[in-house]
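Whether sequence alone determines local backbone shape is best considered at the level of individual chains. The sequence in question and its structure tokens are set out directly beneath this paragraph.

===
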Amino acid sequence: MGLFRTIWVGIFAAPLALAAQSSLPSGTILPVSLDHSLNAGKVHAGQTIRGTIMQSIPGTAVHRGAKVVGQIVAVTANRDGKSAVSLRFDKIETHGRTFPVTTSLRALASYLDVEEAQMPEEIATRGIEPDTATTQQIGGETVYRGGGPVASGETVVGKPVPYGVLVTPRSHPGSPCRANIAGNKAPQALWLFSSDACGVYGYPELQVADAGRSNRTGEFMLVTTKGRLLLRSGSGILLRVQGS
């Protein structure tokens, strides 16, 4: 009987847990690394885009390494060289299953900013291990690993965990990003981003024209103020679940 129970749990428990948790609560943050570069001069409407979730989502069956999948909705290029790309991420692939989500864009960072956020401040000090290092999040907060908190100045905003942080999202004065939505005040997996990270980091000529919360829910638009839009592979993205 014990052996049968073990086999049953191994075969059926994980899929049942996933089925029960496949509807992510509104407000859930999905920290994503872009799997491939997006060049406005080469992509086309209908093209599939993919990213990798970089930190397991607490309280769900969505784990680090799961995939988010979407598509390019539209691409435009003006005569002055400026360009715009509309896109959406609307599926999650995890444990061999796929389920739909509706997401908006909270923050976007260049691959260089992503690399810098993983660089210990004590890089010149010998003997510093990744799990005891102090790092700076995208947005400015400090992560004190090895027993310390995540802090914004003198204010503790969360805690370090493997592959990221758990913090409660905050709004930044003057920014359009909200703190919690739909009453979801649970700590979120923000990977390398600060609790109030909002908008674009490391791409000075890129703007978020539509975050996907209003005109076309789940579809966001990126535009350039100069030159052709190019997001490099490894860029960091914070998506936020609007519904699923």
Notes: The chain has one domain: 22-243. The radius of gyration is 19 Å. The chain has two helices and 18 strands. Helices lie at 2-21, 111-117.
